[in-house]
Automatic annotation (TrEMBL):
InterPro entries: Rhs_assc_core, T6SS_VgrG/RHS, TEN-like_YD-shell, Tox-URI2_dom. Residues 77-335 form the Teneurin-like YD-shell domain. PANTHER family: PROTEIN RHSA-RELATED, PTHR32305. Residues 380-450 form the Tox-URI2 domain. This is Uncharacterized conserved protein. Gene3D superfamilies: RHS repeat-associated core (2.180.10.10).
């Protein structure tokens, strides 16, 4: 196996396209919760200064409306655009894709519980408790006792009350005891099987006698290859090396043999283009508002939203501890903590895929504490605005909360306005453990003081 040092030395120094990737000018903060709060119109600029002259090309332009909502995106090279619509709760509701005189509208209409529908009338799907999709216009969905999808069967007029078995045209899922997806039986009868390490990282995928294997660097894949095994001394034309931004899930480069490709991503870290070492565009892809490939393909760069690896064999995205379906816009297994997370929809992805991501359901527990003696706002469950003020001393607790990335949960402007600073209490633990700690600390505070911290509306 080639050493990481050798790969970096060989390709980062000799292939300017990799260095060029870091010259991409991003005019927008990376914080997914506060995108659009600084400027109403921004663009991504690709600087091609690695060639003989400095030539700037605008790939995409983005226009933002009030409330941190992406209003319009335009491909500056093709002229195609997409306009987004939102409901009164700021949920992404629809997208109108325009190419010339043609317009394609895609609905992602949520109800009060976050269940998604592909029609404005919200009558094309049936849901059960907890956001469990039961039926759409093509398939019926059935689950096991743990809430895992076990059968996605085509609607047939002869379906009775008996538990159906897989038939040609259906999808069937088998699960491990720890809740990880073990295998998927396709409509053609072929089976795709998976293996994981103790940390939940997928290390192999087998389909039609071909095995794809991965070696990980922390939380991101480093090496990938296919067939039975990668032996010492074998050629490297089958070995793929992925490079990511340090400490993130944003891919920046793909290395195959002696060829290097630079990956361009949008403001959320979703890959959109790839260029070879000569600066020629060799891949481009556009996702719809469900995360499904709308134009192009996901074979060359399989990463969709951050933390997601697309499997063409199943149509699903491996999202570390769960699998996401771009067809339905939801996970195929429930949140491990169930309804304890204070979210009535335990299969839902994020409410707005234009400004939020879900990496792999690992959270941080944080505290917001008073910067100095003074009066601080008090909030109450069921009320949007503050209900009063409370005097806190420097260092007193104002709020306890959980987040996938506590450092990006609030803007510095917001923290300054409130007058608090953030302290991360626990990091890199499961969502279930994080929420448990949050509840324990809030209940302990309430038992001590007789009320919740002024910034907390409730304890889960």
């Amino acid at each position: 196996m080639f050493s990481i040092f050798f790969l970096l030395l060989k390709f980062l120094l000799k292939n300017p396209i990799l260095k060029r990737n870091y010259q991409q000018s991003i005019c927008l903060p990376s914080d997914p919760l506060f995108i659009g709060s600084l400027a109403p119109s921004v663009s991504f600029i690709l600087l091609q200064s690695f060639l003989s002259s400095d030539v700037g090309k605008t790939l995409c332009s983005y226009r933002w409306s009030m409330g941190k909502r992406l209003h319009r995106k335009e491909n500056e090279l093709t002229g195609e655009s997409v306009q987004f619509g939102y409901d009164s709760w700021d949920n992404l509701f629809r997208a109108d894709y325009r190419g010339g005189s043609e317009v394609e509208s895609i609905y992602k209409a949520p109800d009060a519980l976050g269940n998604l529908f592909r029609t404005e009338e919200r009558k094309d799907r049936k849901y059960g408790k907890g956001g469990r999709l039961l039926e759409d216009r093509k398939f019926a969905y059935r689950y096991d006792g743990e809430g895992n999808l076990v059968l996605k069967s085509r609607l047939r007029p002869d379906d009775g009350d008996e538990a159906p078995q897989w038939q040609e045209g259906d999808w069937a899922c088998e699960w491990q005891g720890n809740g990880m997806l073990k295998s998927v039986k396709r409509p053609d009868g072929e089976v795709v099987s998976f293996e994981y390490d103790p940390l939940g990282r997928r290390i192999s995928k087998r389909y039609k006698g071909t095995t794809t294997r991965w070696i990980w660097d922390g939380n991101v894949p480093l090496h990938e290859w296919t067939d039975e095994e990668k032996r010492e001394g074998a050629g490297d034309e089958n070995l793929i090396t992925w490079l990511f931004e340090e400490g993130s899930f944003v891919p920046t480069a793909k290395i195959v043999g002696n060829k290097a490709y630079s990956i361009i991503t949008d403001y959320l870290g979703t890959p959109t283009h790839a260029f070879d070492s000569k600066g020629d565009k060799i891949w481009e892809r556009e996702l719809d508002i469900y995360g499904k490939t709308r134009e192009g393909d996901s074979s060359f760069i399989p990463f969709l939203y951050q933390g997601q690896y697309f499997d063409a064999e199943t149509g699903l995205c491996y999202n570390r501890f769960r699998y996401y379906s771009p067809d339905t816009g939801s996970y195929i297994s429930q949140d491990p903590i169930g309804l304890a997370g204070n979210n009535p929809n335990i299969y839902a992805y994020v409410s707005d895929t234009n400004n939020r991501i879900d990496l792999f359901a690992l959270d941080e527990l944080y505290a917001l504490v008073a910067r100095k003696d003074g009066w601080y706002p008090v909030f109450e469950y069921g009320k949007k605005n503050l209900v009063g003020e409370m005097f806190l001393k420097e260092g007193d607790l104002w709020k306890i909360g959980t987040s996938k990335d506590a450092s990006k949960r609030y803007t510095q402007k917001y923290l300054k306005e409130i007058g608090v600073k953030m302290e991360v209490l626990y990091s890199g633990i499961s969502r279930k453990a994080t929420l448990l700690l949050e509840r324990l600390k809030l209940k302990g505070y309430e038992a001590w003081k007789g009320f919740l911290p002024p910034g907390n509306k409730c304890h889960h």
